[in-house]
Amino acid sequence: MHLNRTLSATALAAACLVALTGCGAGGGSDATEGAASAAPAEAAASWPRTIDIPAGSHGGEATSITIETEPQAIAALDYESAEAIAELGLADHLVLIPEAVLNPTLGSHVKELSAVPATFPVAMSLDPETVIAAAPDLVISSPRHGMDDTIGETLAQAGIQSMQLPTSWTSVATLTQNVDLIGQAIGAEDAADKLTAELEKGLVATGSAAKAADTKDSETPGVLVLTNQAGRAFITAGEAYPLELLELAGGHSVSADLGMRATGPITAEQVVEANPAGIVLVDMNGSGDRLFQDLLANEAVAALPAAADDKILRVTGHEVQALGLNSTIDGLAKLSTWVATLG
Q1: Taking Cα atoms as reference points, which of 144, 175, 209, 213 lies closest to residue 325?
Q2: Average model confidence (pLDDT) for the chain?
Q3: Among the listed residues 338, 336, 317, the one whose alpha carbon sits nearest the alpha carbon of residue 100
Q4: Sign of the CA dihedral 302, 210, 319, 120?
Q5: Cβ atoms within 10 A of the Cβ of 120, count?
């Protein structure tokens, strides 16, 4: 934990008095001016801007926000938003991020994000005082690792503008949608367009090569996807980006076969019941195999063909989690090559 960089609530009283400012310039260019001077003038004229936010996939109505000036101090309350902003070239505009993105097992922009003034340890336990103390002029979050209604209301009362993305980062479609919205909000539309094009081309092309569109789960290898978190092995289940990559790679998650709808702990008995063709170990914190050992060393689990024949693939979080962005193109290629060996 970066204690020297993590904000404390004691800064709240002073921070609440800080005037929240934005920066932008108006004006246009004469028709005779060259392209070099026209581009900055067009960018300056694009503020204020209104962003239309679609309805969320799990409820919530479509809405819109108007951002008056180009954000200069941005708080990203979820891992993926922090990584997206860094990928779009505006890491130096961030003032608050989850500290987990500074772990190279997860983050792809550790050097740039190490310069962000403040971090917080766990997004789900984030309090509004920490956000207010960072004095952002824009807060970006997702439904999963973002603001609940209480925090949102508190930030609004403090005069801090926020944008909650409509969906969590669980699929290629939600990933590209969220990147597009962030690009609009921070004035990086061109970079966002380029990134989404790279993602769509790389992920869809690799996935199409690995799995036919009409292939049923029963015709693909069943794979157990485990992550190391909360001090033990968790099964990845429900709507999760790594599971979409697995499907694109030509496999399917045994979590559905077990009737599991949310990521959480798994027992040796459940692993034996699933009897997967292969096992993926996703290292989320740099601890390697350590937190998986108790489960895999279970006598019944170790006797399964997947374990006995070493049909185990090891990947890092940034290779298969949405926060890896275009790193997941290589992650998908690795998954596809491995799934093809499962038969």
Answers
A1: 175
A2: 84
A3: 317
A4: negative
A5: 23
Nearest to 122 by CA among 88, 153, 148, 145: 145
* pTM for this predicted structure: 0.83
Peptide bond into 48 cis (omega under 30): yes
Tens-place pLDDT, residues 232-272: 999 999 999 999 999 999 999 999 999 999 999 999 999 99
Closest CA to 262 of 282, 244, 239: 239
Q: What is the pLDDT of residues 140-163, one digit of tens each?
A: 998 875 555 668 788 989 999 999
First to last CA, the chain: 43
Count of other CB atoms within 10 angstroms of residue 122? 11
Pair of tokens at residue 26:
């108006």
